[in-house]
Design a protein that fits this description.
heterodimer; A: 7-stranded mixed sheet; B: 5-stranded mixed sheet
Amino acid sequence: SAVISQKPSRDICQRGTSLTIQCQVDSQVTMMFWYRQQPGQSLTLIATANQGSEATYESGFVIDKFPISRPNLTFSTLTVSNMSPEDSSIYLCSASTGGDTQYFGPGTRLTVL
Amino acid sequence: DAKTTQPPSMDCAEGRAANLPCNHSTISGNEYVYWYRQIHSQGPQYIIHGLKNNETNEMASLIITEDRKSSTLILPHATLRDTAVYYCIVRSANRGVQGAQKLVFGQGTRLTINP
């Protein structure tokens, strides 16, 4: 299994600003993923973060809004850019160790005023 | 879109077995059935997964029908801490296919364990 931590755990931000969320895994992993969970909703995949290449974004999500970095096999960041109240969500990262199972971090609760 | 159908909510008495059904009638031969749960305000927790055979671990048992079109997650002795949203997810077993490892979450089943 993998233990995943995220920073910050929560934040309150002003409209128009950007926030970078960090995701740290306690072991090297092949694939990392970023999800969004809007209030009262299920999880939606934003993108797959690949080490050494650009992230792969799902339909409806673009790099300019959600730039992602994956500098090594244990770390990734997601930036939520030019935020609006509609970006208020829980953002979750997950990781796959190369086996068949994804493990999730605790999430970052973002509120945009 | 999610490939699974689950009841939106279920109740179970504490100490009883909780049986959560999932329909995945369009599942293909190389797709796993995964179960996760999400306790309020936490990240999803992996429970169990299977391909064809029934599986059991320290958390739960997974029963997959012979035609693989449905499955049941069994929590043998439910406790109050098992109250959560349970997600049944179908995912490709082919790691070499682009995007095969991503998980598509449906709305899940909100399981409430009552004292």
